[in-house]
Design brief:
The protein is an all-beta fold. The chain has a 6-stranded mixed β-sheet with strand order 2-10-9-4-5-6, with no helix packed on it. A 4-stranded antiparallel β-sheet has the order 1-3-8-7, with no helix packed on it. The relative contact order is 0.33.
């Protein structure tokens, strides 16, 4: 199993990013997928989940209305659109199955700072 996240960067407050995660080594279309994040000194938290058909999504309260999760099963890719970024969104972002069952990738760093 391999999960490769990309798309992070340094952005100013209020900015936007689109993260991508390409999966391999498992039947991607058979699993609900999620994005997680881990800020310095904090536990990893689940921020968004999308079901296998890209028809049902759920979000942590802290990101509702600003984050959008989606997937492309043909490309084995899950995306996270992030708008109205806040400094507290600074973290390393990871993707995984909804229950975190697979080996974690390296993640992609998102830093929100002016």
């Amino acid at each position: 199993v391999q999960l490769v996240e990309s798309g992070g960067g340094l952005v100013q407050p209020g900015g936007s990013l689109r993260l991508s995660c390409v999966a391999s080594g498992f039947t991607f279309s058979a699993y609900d997928m999620s994005w997680y994040r881990q800020a310095p000194g904090k536990e990893r938290e689940l921020v968004a989940r999308v079901n296998i058909f890209d028809r049902s999504t759920s979000y942590a309260d802290s990101v509702k209305g600003r984050f959008t999760i989606s997937r492309d099963n043909a490309k084995k890719t899950v995306y996270l659109g992030i708008n109205s970024l806040k400094p507290e969104d600074t973290a390393v972002y990871f993707c995984n199955a909804f229950d975190g069952r697979f080996s974690w990738g390296q993640g992609t760093q998102v830093t929100v700072s002016s």
